[in-house]
Specification:
Elements (H helix, E strand, L loop, with lengths): L3 E2 L11 E2 L2 E4 L5 H9 L6 E3 L5 E2 L9 E4 L4 E7 L2 E7 L4 H10 L2 E2 L20 E2 L2 E2 H4 E8 L4 E6 L11 H4 L4 E12 L9 H7 L9 H14 L13 E4 L5 E2 L1 H9 L4 E2 L6 E3 L1 H7 L7 E3 L2 E3 L6 E4 L5 H19 L8 E2 L1
Parallel strand pairs: 3-6, 4-6, 5-22
Antiparallel strand pairs: 1-2, 7-8, 8-14, 9-14, 10-11, 12-13, 12-14, 15-21, 16-18, 17-18, 19-20, 20-21
Bound molecules: flavin-adenine dinucleotide.
The site of flavin-adenine dinucleotide has 34 residues, from strand 4, strand 10, strand 14 and strand 15.
Length: 340
Amino acid sequence: MGQHQLSDHTTLRLGGPAPLWLSHTHDADWPDLARAAARHAEQPFTLGGGSNTLAPDQGTTRPVIHMATRGIRTRHLGEGQVEVTVAAGHPLAELVAHTVAEGLSGIEYLGGIPGTAGAAPVQNAGAYGQEIGDRLATVTAHDWTTGRTARIPAAECGFGYRTSRFKRQPGRWTILFLTLHLARSTAAAPVTYQHLATALQCPLASRPPLAAAAAAVLDDRAERGLLLPESGHDHRQVGSCFLNPTVTDDQARALRTQGGPVHRAPSQPWRASAGWLLEACGYGPGAEITRGVRCSTHRTLTLTAQPGATAHSFRHALERMAGHVRTATGIHLQAEPVAV
Ligand SMILES: Cc1cc2nc3c(=O)[nH]c(=O)nc-3n(C[C@H](O)[C@H](O)[C@H](O)COP(=O)(O)OP(=O)(O)OC[C@H]3O[C@@H](n4cnc5c(N)ncnc54)[C@H](O)[C@@H]3O)c2cc1C
């Protein structure tokens, strides 16, 4: 415990003090830590790598549980299936690299996403057509409403596009472990993105070699500004700032005639590209939105904090951009980063 600044633990480097700080480093200590957090009147906030968190300038009086547990265990299930259990604080990118090195397919397209494994189910983290929820068997989570730890089957996690029951019930759960079912394979899952297929020199929907697919993802992310830089102009960011919004059939038709990309997964509504909508409203890479808040130099959809930025000015930038798109198109953009 001690006085921690949220700005030291979020990739935006924003956020004030968190006087009640509980670092979860050892699995066995969880019952003691949970008891300490439960003694506080306010529900705790669970923080992973802070790469999707917008923390307030004034800080928080809620206890902050910082997930810092590590460890990956594997168990052979037979018929080429392997169960992988990972501690919530383990970096997701390391988990992906580990499974690829072990010759396990299932999450190879999720490489390079910053943050912890435990946060991945919260927004059903996804990239290149793959989502963590697709391969999850169970999530072990502490339920602050009952004070008990439960093992929740993936089918009960309510996964959707960048959402889950954990996101829909903010503050209720602290995820402690994930269990994934992966397949032993030298081939990756089918490639569903044309530019990745082009880079891998294979047809769309074919299965490229596992290690090559994972490497191509990292190259592509580097090229498109989707890796978190350690320093430089764009390093204070939370990745994409808006979800791709759902649109009606009429809106989808209208966008298509203007050259706007729309897509839909089977039995799902149409979704437009948030980045394209922002650019159609005149925003572009590097644009200053509010004091100290700019689009990244690589992509409009990523906002970066610059010297002088505050959480307040960052939130204002999100509201300004969403308001502009709403006025111009009637389409509602939903912010992706989570407020403490
Ligand atoms: C450069 C960059 C690229 C990105 N690319 C992608 C991408 O391709 N796809 C994608 O989906 N996301 C992407 N993101 C967003 C972000 O990295 C992911 O959402 C990631 O899963 C967040 O992990 P974290 O540990 O940093 O979460 P945090 O920011 O710490 O937390 C995010 C939310 O999850 C909750 N949470 C965290 N840990 C737990 C836990 N153990 N139990 C319960 N709740 C918890 C928090 O309370 C908060 O509500 C990107 C971000 C950046 C900066």
